[in-house]
Known about the structure:
Number of domains of chain A: 1
CATH superfamily of the largest domain in chain B: Nucleotide-binding domain of ferredoxin-NADP reductase (FNR) module
Radius of gyration of chain B: 18 Å
CATH topology of chain A: TIM Barrel
Largest sheet of chain B: 7 strands, antiparallel
Strand order of the largest sheet of chain A: 3-4-7-8-9-10-15-16
Shape of chain A: globular
Helix content of chain B: 10-25%
Number of helices of chain A: 9
Number of domains of chain B: 2
Structural class of chain B: alpha/beta
Distance between the termini of chain A: 26 Å
Structural class of chain A: alpha/beta
Strand content of chain B: 25-35%
CATH superfamily of chain A: Aldolase class I
Number of strands of chain B: 16
CATH architecture of the largest domain in chain B: 3-Layer(aba) Sandwich
Oligomer: heterodimer
Radius of gyration of chain A: 18 Å
Bound molecules: flavin-adenine dinucleotide, flavin mononucleotide, FE2/S2 (inorganic) cluster
Shape of chain B: globular
Amino acid sequence: MAKLQVNIGALSLQNPVLTASGTFGYGLEFADFVDLNRLGGFVVKGTTLRPREGNDYPRMAETTGGMLNCVGLQNPGVEHFCQHIYPQLKGLKSEVIVNVSGSSPADYAACARHIDALEEVHAIELNISCPNVKDGGMAFGVTCEGAASVVREVRKAYSKTLIVKLSPNVTDIASIARAVEAEGADAVSLINTLMGMSVDIERRCSRLSIGTGGLSGPCVKPVALRMVSQVAKAVKLPIIGLGGIMTAEDAIEFLMVGATAVQIGTANFIDPAVTMKVVDGIDRWLDDHGIADVHDIIGVIG
Amino acid sequence: MKYSHSLVVAAVERPREGYVLLKLRLPAEVSLSDIEPGQFVELLAPRAPHTFLRRPISVNFVDYADRTLWLLIHEVGEGTRAFSALSPGDKLDCVYALGHGFPIDLPEAESYLLVGGGVGTAPLLYYGSLLHEQGRKVTFLLGGRRSVDLMQLDDFGRYGRVCLTTEDGSTGERGFVTAHSVWATEHFDVVATCGPKPMMMAVAAKAAEVGIDSCYASLENLMACGLGACLCCVEKNADGHNVCVCKEGPVFNVRQLSWQSYK
Ligand SMILES: Cc1cc2nc3c(=O)[nH]c(=O)nc-3n(C[C@H](O)[C@H](O)[C@H](O)COP(=O)(O)OP(=O)(O)OC[C@H]3O[C@@H](n4cnc5c(N)ncnc54)[C@H](O)[C@@H]3O)c2cc1C
Ligand SMILES: Cc1cc2nc3c(=O)[nH]c(=O)nc-3n(C[C@H](O)[C@H](O)[C@H](O)COP(=O)(O)O)c2cc1C
Ligand code: FES
């Protein structure tokens, strides 16, 4: 049993394995397969100030080694979350993190303020990188000024751990990371999905209702790893690495290039119990290699 | 309770070219009566390098005597072809049983018309068997293009009257299921349907036309997780909101949907 506990800002995680927003529902959907108390934490669905209907069907296309989605932030709104979903998530040993999205900095801040009041939620993850909505989302995450403007506003409204989720759809992800660090973010998570397309050649149209979607799954892992490595060199903030993790070995790659924790997304669709296997697998790997503390592998590749 | 198991293939049958019937052995911990008719299974395709996600397949039948779960699969692509290539003794990775199925406890509903087209007949076998067991009157109305499209007819015959249509008239009445004479000659309390969406919409419209109040349809939207987590499989409900087919469905009372039949 190696020591697996890590810190993300003021947030203490019992192990470095979290689930990625939009891929694990509110956790409860997986309760038959996963002991929710054994996760480091889980990041719930993208939440906005007002309810959102999301994009039209079809919202998904399978690709080689992954999938595209254009769900478009369908969610019941932050008030519904606070009143009806949060009570069901109380008392867990793992951290519940709310993924927050909006269409203006004020919007993000208002949503964050609601969540600040929830005693057992100790962190939010700002989604400034959703490629599937026109108003906001990725629009903020692709420029340093846009990213900074959202973080600045939210930082005033939110007192606990503020994680900012970065878009890979940029020329220089390290500069965006520096911009959010300068505005007082406590951590960054990366990557969100890569914008992509898939075409039905018989019907001569895109397989997705809005034309494009976000690519996720093992096919994006090499890109994600490279970006985590770049950001690790650019900022002092703790990093949560994600993108295509399917196994404990994948997770360890992210830790070695500088991530303090990881998130597992699309892999939950292939194996609903995958998170437990990753937690146990990291532990076993550390034991097998005579390593007593997970920190001894974090960032070992400079 | 949902399960994630690697199930042993007990038998592989080929009801016709391009289709496979897999019988999977269920472990002792699974309570068979918990599996609802109309629920589905998410299968991981073995040795299929271009498939990534699981494939949703309806519960065709649960054989209580030998504890097998039956799946009737139409080979349409790499995933379904991989299932067809399985042999007895092989293992198949399954997440089950998912979603909400057909209603089996409707009070005062005595007679049921179960309408299936193509491989959409699959879930109606288990549904019909349970209704039959409860002493309800079951009529199956099964349609295909040609007579070879109609499968498992002996199995259906055990649980109710079987009416057939083919588009070429080779078996049963000629035409679509909605043209069959049974709609005019008999009254049904409930209609349940599974098959291509245009067929189900026509069945729902027909049911409304002949004054049948309850009509249930099983949808086959594209799915990623099958668990209500990804929100990829949505259908518009009667209020115009998106609902998950995998979790709220796949079986819906058509009044819950935005279909025009009961408006
Ligand atoms: C709830 C549910 C229950 C189902 N039950 C059965 C069943 O009992 N028996 C059965 O044979 N099939 C069933 N299907 C359809 C089955 O899931 C698809 O045929 C299968 O996923 C195709 O996989 P593939 O890799 O062989 O084909 P792919 O290469 O993925 O696709 C080949 C073709 O099949 C079509 N297709 C893909 N997914 C679906 C889908 N979800 N629905 C309809 N067409 C699709 C594609 O548009 C494409 O034209 C069900 C689907 C759902 C959602
Ligand atoms: C269906 C789906 C929905 C998603 N929804 C969100 C979301 O609401 N907010 C967000 O920040 N990221 C969302 N994501 C992105 C994931 O959290 C993650 O960043 C991405 O999928 C890469 O990780 P993976 O390859 O492990 O899935 C979604 C991804 C998928 C596949
Ligand atoms: S398939 Fe994921 S929510 Fe229905």
